Automatic annotation (TrEMBL):
Domain Luciferase-like: 21-307
GO cellular component, one term: cytosol
Family membership: To bacterial alkanal monooxygenase alpha and beta chains.
Entries under InterPro entries matching the protein: Bact_Lucif_Oxidored (IPR050766), CmoO-like (IPR019949), Luciferase-like_dom (IPR011251), Luciferase-like_sf (IPR036661)
Name of the featured protein: Luciferase-like monooxygenase
Pfam families: Bac_luciferase
Gene3D superfamilies assigned: Luciferase-like domain
SUPFAM superfamilies for the chain: Bacterial luciferase-like (SSF51679)
Length: 333
């Protein structure tokens, strides 16, 4: 069945990007302002991601930032895209999200990933003796579900608050492993196509074909995260997108920086190899005017049939970023 843009929910992934010349405190103020605007523009949910030891990402204490955003908004769903579960005890996450769901009932999402959200040395600092905790991810998801269930009330270990609360759990992924897990557990599936598009189509196909209905979800539900840079003209959008290109060049070279201002010519900054690598990672990226993005997004929806689209926008100027999200919302109207 053909999916239509005007019936597709659209959402935000905020990587709490720290911009050159600013601090994480500025980032959090800008995030809250963005969240208040997108709530008015009809966005469905606002997610934050757990990363560590990255100078350009301020959302390392993800649950705390979720509380900040939820506390400053009224209706939009707020959650994690995601919490890297092997970094934590399932009980502590049940308590943290139980607290959030008690403060903001009916508005909290819990997206779970298995990656460390950082480099191996930092992962060791976080996980310690649980360094191989990713192997326990399926068991830890089940433990977390148990702590959040009303049936856990007779257990010796209980999540207070958290027990008996209906907090939607999502499985996040950037490979086919997560697709099998989300399908087996009957949970909604969010794919990180904004930086790992290579296995995207294969993974969502595996998920849909192997999906087992559960008490949480009767049919498969796929959310795709994509990069978006929208502006009044294609030329302006492509200029703004050079900040995104510089960010991905930093990922490719391992020389990460704070988000840099746009430039006139990327050829002065990256070489052919860096450009090719970055463009592979940026295959699911939408840049241009409202009209251009609408056309490209309709093709993407036809090709993938995803149920929801989540936009992340690395734009240097805060007002230009707000305008990009406003234009993106208008695409769906």
């Amino acid at each position: 069945m053909k999916k239509l843009l005007n019936s597709t929910p659209y959402s935000v992934l905020d990587l709490a990007t720290v911009i050159e010349g600013t601090t994480p405190a500025d980032t959090f103020r800008n995030s809250l302002e963005l969240a208040r605007h997108v709530e008015q523009w009809g966005y469905n949910r606002y997610w934050l991601a757990e990363h560590h030891n990255m100078i350009s990402v301020a959302s390392s204490a993800t649950s705390v930032v979720i509380g900040h955003i939820a506390g400053g908004t009224k209706t939009i769903r707020v959650g994690s895209g995601g919490i890297m579960l092997p970094n934590h005890s399932p009980l502590v996450i049940a308590e943290q999200f139980g607290t959030l769901a008690s403060l903001f009932p009916g508005r909290i999402d819990l997206g779970l990933g298995r990656a460390p959200g950082t480099d191996q040395v930092t992962a060791m600092a976080i996980r310690g003796e649980r360094f191989s905790g990713a192997n326990d991810f399926p068991k830890d998801v089940l433990k977390l579900q148990a702590y959040l269930s009303a049936d856990n009330k007779n257990s010796n270990v209980r999540a207070i608050p958290g027990e008996g609360l209906d907090i939607p759990i999502w499985i996040l992924g950037s490979s086919t492993d997560s697709a099998h897990l989300a399908a087996a557990f009957g949970l909604p599936y969010a794919f990180a196509s904004h930086f790992a598009p290579a296995q995207f189509l294969t993974a969502i196909d595996i998920y849909r074909k192997n999906f087992k209905p559960s008490a949480h979800l009767s049919e498969p539900y796929v959310l795709a995260c994509v990069n978006v840079v929208a502006a009044d003209t294609d030329a302006e959008a492509h200029k703004l997108a050079t900040s995104l290109y510089q960010l991905f060049r930093g990922i490719v070279t391992g020389k990460r920086q704070l988000l840099q201002p746009p430039v006139d010519n990327m050829d002065d900054i990256w070489d052919v190899y860096e450009e090719a690598q970055a463009n592979q990672m940026l295959a699911c990226t939408f840049i241009g005017s409202k009209e251009t993005i609408k056309q490209d997004l309709e093709q993407f929806l036809d090709q993938t049939g995803v149920d929801e689209i989540m936009a992340t926008s690395h734009i240097f100027d805060h007002q230009a970023r707000l305008h990009s999200y406003e234009l993106f919302a208008e695409v769906f109207k």
